[in-house]
Every structure is written in C-alpha cells, then in structure tokens.
Amino acid sequence: MRVTRCLFNSRTALHRVFVSPFEKVEALSRQSALLIPSTRVLQPISAPIPSLARHASMVHRFKKKGGGAPDPTSSGAKKGPLENDEITDRQVMIVNEENKLEGPFDTFKVVRSLDLDREVLRMVSEARGPRHAICKIINIEALREREREQEQARKENAKTKQKSKDLELNWAIAPHDLGHKLKQLRTFLEKGFKVEVLLAKKKGSRTATRDEAETLIQTIRDLLADTPGARETKAPEGTPLKVMRMYLTAPVKGSTAWIEAKAAFDRLAAEKAAAEAALAEQEALKNGSTAAEAS
C-alpha cells in the first residue's frame, strides 16, 4: 500500500523556511558563474611611457668645480669680463703698467699673489688658438673711480640729448617782448638744448631799421657771452632785415662742462674788472695831475 506524503507537516514547513532559500541562492550563484557576459570588452594594457620631462629630470648633471666660465646661453651667465678665479686658463699673458705684454704666467699663482681687497686680475682678451689669454691687474679704487666718471658722463649725455628748440623773433620786437624771449632763450641754453633762432619780419608789424636789426643780433650774442659755455655752432644763415637763422648751444647748467666754462667765465670777469679798476685809477691820477698843474 502506497503511503501518501503529507505536504503540510511540521518537517516540510521547517525545511521551506530555513533551508530552501539558501539552496536557491547557491543555485543562482553557480548559474551566474557559468555564464560569460558577451558585452564586456577589456581594454588592452599598454606599458606606461615616461614623459620627456621626467626622463630629463632623471639625467645626472655634472657641476663644474671652481670658477669656470659659465655657459653664455644660460640665464645666469656672467656679464662682463672674467676676473680672478673665474679665469680657467692655466696660463695668461699680463699687460704691465707700460701697456706691454709679459709672461706667460701661471694664473693660479698670479691670483694668489694679489691683494684682493685692492687688486683684481681681469681678462681683456680671450685665448685664440695657441695664443694665451691676455689679462690685466687693475687697482679696484681706480676702477671704481673710472666707473663713477663714466656713469656721470652717461648721465650728462642723457641730460644733453641735444633736443632742438626753435625761437622766433621779430626784427622790430618790443623791449618787453624781447626781455621775455631772451629769458626763454637763456633757459633753453642752460638745459643744454640746441636752439635755432629765427629772425624775420612779423606779418603786419612795422619794418625795422638796420640799426635795430644789428642791435638785436648783438643783444643775442651778448646773452651768449654772459652764459657759461654758450656759443654759436655755425655761422648765421640769411640776411638781416629779411630772414636770418642763428644756431646756438650751451652745456647743461651744473654739468662738468658748465662748471669748467663757469670757472673760465668768472676768471675773465675778474680780470676785466681788475683792468677796468686799474684804468679808472690811472684816469684819476691823470686828472689829479692835470688839476695840480692848472692850479
């Protein structure tokens, strides 16, 4: 006789609650492991290529020992001539005080023999083929003084860039206007400008006389004589009472050239004053003698 299994007994209920869910999960896990997804595409793995910058940074660089000449193409290259330990030549020729070559001498020994607080070995010419480099021993104080003079000259040249100024005068100019123009002319000259003075008849003005024209020209020249270092750069062009040009210049006030010209100007003025005083004294003595004889 066949026994019918009860589907709703306690054993079946417990199996369905505690065991059956884990069996389903295990079955699904085995099924997913057997399946190979056809949609996944793996990217090929290529070997990493190091960047050029990193590669360059790994290259070992050698640093020169001593004061060798730097690479002129580098940003930190020294400007100017090489001095002392910067000179890498083993032997050099030396320019003596008479500007004659002596040597060759051992560079290291020459540098070590110097009083480096007062002297410097400076290269004036690099070695060319078999010819040694040429150097000169320079006094540092004299070098600094020369550099100061060069800097002063450079500043003076910058001040006296010789900018041109034009000044126009009427032959029949009024005294008040003439005074203003002469003051302007003196200012231009003291600033070191080249001044071109144009003398011409102003439209609508009266015609000046020849004496007035000559007086005006002489007045301009008197101003030049009263301004240290002032002069005419070339002869006037043109004709009085028509159109005439005068070309004037002077050193900058306070410059070395101006100071020298001012000293010469003051010396001449003192000599002139002394001569006039002596002449006046002679005239006074002469007049006194004449009066005594008359009495």
Please, could you describe this protein's structure?
There is one protein chain. The protein is of the alpha/beta class and 295 residues long. Among the domains are: 84-140, no CATH class; 164-255, Translation initiation factor 3 (IF-3), C-terminal domain (Translation Initiation Factor IF3, 2-Layer Sandwich). The protein is built from 8 helices and 8 strands; from the N terminus they run αααββαββαβαβαββα. The longest helix has 39 residues, at 256-294. The radius of gyration is 50 Å and the shape is flat.
Remind me, CATH topology of the domain at 164-255? Answer: Translation Initiation Factor IF3
Largest sheet descriptor: 4 strands, mixed
CATH superfamily of the domain at 164-255: Translation initiation factor 3 (IF-3), C-terminal domain
Can you list the strand order of the major beta sheet? Answer: 2-1-4-3
Order of helices and strands: HHHEEHEEHEHEHEEH
How far apart, in Å, are the first and last alpha carbons?
A: 200 Å
For this structure, what is the CATH class of the domain at 164-255?
Alpha Beta
Beta-strand segment tally: 8
Tally of helical runs: 8
User: Could you say which overall geometry the principal axes of the C-alpha atoms support?
Assistant: flat
Q: Which ranges are low-confidence, i.e. pLDDT below 50, for 5 or more consecutive residues?
A: 32-70
Structural class: alpha/beta
Mean pLDDT over the residues: 77
Rg over CA atoms: 50 Å
CATH architectural label of the domain at 164-255 = 2-Layer Sandwich
- Proportion of strand residues: 15-25%
